[in-house]
Amino acid sequence: MKSYILATLLTAAATVNGIPMPMPTPPGIPSTSSAKTQLAALTVKAYVDDGTYDRDLFPTWNTIEGSCNTREYVLKRDGTNVVVNSACTATSGSWKSPFDGATWTQASDVDIDHMVPLKNAWVNGAKSWTTSKRSQFANDISSPELWAVTDNVNQAKGDKSPDAWKPPLTSFYCTYAKSWVQVKYKWALSITSAEKTALTSMLNTC
């Protein structure tokens, strides 16, 4: 999708117009010790996909404040110098993707990633939820569930858990694992044995 070379992106990503950009930090990321305690408390179950998942079972994007829906809210929250129009559509700004370190100046280049993908949530407990609860999960801005990231990196992740996919930046493993664990713990979602092993390894990089 992008015509840029990843290595060039990673080199140039640290600044916009020569000004360093901080990584976005959604709320609710636990300490390493808390994340390890939460991980130990999660139920371990096999991943069984019965083919019943449908993204429409997780309604997005809800109106969060004013005329801004969840996507627009996260773009404003995680961006730098974001300007929006009367419809709350971002017309300018900068976004630094914590997954790969790339910086974008077009909102169309940015996806809002669900840290714990919707299908993963479905298979690991959300199937039994009401549609209303699934919508709350899909639009959760009070935990580290929603992240503004490079669109094709988000697409590469898909619905994979950390044993099958990790962010390109190894320096982000610690925050990624803590965020994943917090979301699973908050929403009482189960994990697989392989997922737990991967998360343990990632937390050990903290």
TrEMBL record:
Supply the Pfam families for this chain.
Answer: GmrSD_C
Which top-rank group of organisms is this from? Answer: Eukaryota
**InterPro entries tied to this protein:** GmrSD_C
Renumbered to this chain, the signal peptide range is: 1-18
Q: Where is the GmrSD restriction endonucleases C-terminal domain?
A: 104-200
Annotated keywords: Signal
Q: Signal: present as a keyword of the record?
A: yes
PANTHER family, sorted: AMP-DEPENDENT SYNTHETASE_LIGASE DOMAIN-CONTAINING PROTEIN-RELATED, SECRETED PROTEIN
Q: What is this protein called?
A: GmrSD restriction endonucleases C-terminal domain-containing protein
